[in-house]
Amino acid sequence: MNIKTVMVIGAGQMGGGIAQVCAQAGYNVILNDLKDEFLTRGLSVIEKNMNRAVSKEKMTEEDKNASLGRITRSTDLNDAKNADLVIEAAVENMAIKTKIFETLDQAAPEHAILASNTSSLPITEIAAATKRPEQVIGMHFMNPVPVMKLVEIIRGLATTDEVYQAIEEMTKTLNKAPVEVEDFPGFVSNRILMPMINEAIYTLYEGVASKEAIDDVMKMGMNHPMGPLQLADFIGLDTCLYIMEILHEGFGDSKYRPCPLLRKYVKAGWLGKKTGRGFYIYE
Ligand SMILES: CC(=O)CC(=O)SCCNC(=O)CCNC(=O)[C@H](O)C(C)(C)COP(=O)(O)OP(=O)(O)OC[C@H]1O[C@@H](n2cnc3c(N)ncnc32)[C@H](O)[C@@H]1OP(=O)(O)O
Ligand SMILES: NC(=O)C1=CN([C@@H]2O[C@H](COP(=O)(O)OP(=O)(O)OC[C@H]3O[C@@H](n4cnc5c(N)ncnc54)[C@H](OP(=O)(O)O)[C@@H]3O)[C@@H](O)[C@H]2O)C=CC1
After folding, report:
1. If residue 115 lies in a helix (H) or strand (E), which one and from where to where?
2. Ranges for the 3-hydroxyacyl-CoA dehydrogenase NAD binding domain (predicted)?
3. Is 224 a catalytic residue?
């Protein structure tokens, strides 16, 4: 399958990163969000990232301008009519995602593949909202997208081999490493990572150590690049809570119950780095 135009839904931290790597790899990108101001915010992060790459001589000014020139703005999901592949990276909520996929299914050309960057939601259920479940797939990028090598590729129950292979090939053109996983809650990445983060939050909640001490133990003791509380802030505490809830509900096992402190922070609007405050305070 010949993929030339990629539409990305959601211009937040993940959608922006996905749009950036696709544009840098030569794809035409349609970046979609609910409001124009979110697109402006997303595009300014992309430009900042590219300027940093130029200043480090990892990208030329011409390549930067050409990549930015390949990204067009959209606030209308019907713009999917021009896409060969849509990658959805809106909020981690099944009702919102199924609504988006229903609309995309109506708007996108027959040949188009519809992918979701969901962290944990069942691809099979998202696919069931469309009349083309065989062309729906999970494409789970890691944060920060321009830096991290992995893309987990998740097959829904109906995903065809042809669609899987097209997405595997496309992922390689982004200079990323695809890894195939089956459709279970949290896939592999978040089934392992998120209970560790949740346990770190319990450790703080129970007063076992300070947030700095918990992060230091994992950074210096286990060589993690970030401590789990710093990483939770970086991912977004709302996203961490959604993922724990999906694991809890999906497996029906109390070992996945979200820590009350995580719920409290999300209720307070302390969502981490993106809102300026989570476990830590950001300028
Ligand atoms: C929740 C999910 O569903 C799945 C997930 O994504 S879970 C999250 C997975 N991600 C992680 O675990 C990230 C863990 N953290 C790290 O790997 C590192 O701390 C980090 C890569 C984020 C930063 O690394 P660092 O060495 O501390 O910082 P720094 O030296 O500033 O950055 C290293 C490189 O990354 C780039 N970078 C850092 N943050 C970036 C960002 N947000 N966007 C783009 N590029 C970024 C820097 O420009 C730098 O690039 P060069 O090598 O070209 O100079
Ligand atoms: N954060 C992470 O580390 C990772 C997240 N993911 C997944 O990626 C997805 C996005 O996460 P992330 O980028 O962190 O979240 P953000 O909150 O940074 O961005 C989500 C963006 O999607 C927009 N949005 C919400 N609803 C819609 C809609 N109906 N149509 C179009 N855009 C919409 C939001 O707008 P508004 O601001 O108005 O809400 C926001 O701009 C989630 O499914 C998440 O689980 C996957 C890998 C890693």
Report:
1. strand 113-116
2. 5-183
3. no
pLDDT tens, the chain, 283 aa long: 799 999 999 999 999 999 999 999 999 999 999 999 999 999 999 999 999 999 999 999 999 999 999 999 999 999 999 999 999 999 999 999 999 999 999 999 999 999 999 999 999 999 999 999 999 999 999 999 999 999 999 999 999 999 999 999 999 999 999 999 999 999 999 999 999 999 999 999 999 999 999 999 999 999 999 999 999 999 999 999 999 999 999 999 999 999 999 999 999 999 999 999 999 999 8
Spot the catalytic one: 152, 175, 223, 224. 152
List, in order of start, the domains of the chain with CATH numbers: 5-181 (3.40.50.720), 190-275 (1.10.1040.10)
Residue 140 annotated among the catalytic residues of the structure: yes
ipTM of the prediction = 0.96
Show Cβ contacts of residue 173 under 8 Å, excluding neighbours closer than 6 positions: 25, 26
Identify any residues that bridge with 178 across adjacent strands, giving them in sequence order: 151
Cα(first)–Cα(last) distance of the chain, in Å?
45
SS3 call for 161: helix
Distance from the alpha carbon of residue 270 to the mean position of ligand 2, in angstroms: 16
Q: Report DSSP letters for 50-64, one per residue.
A: HHHHHHTTSS-HHHH
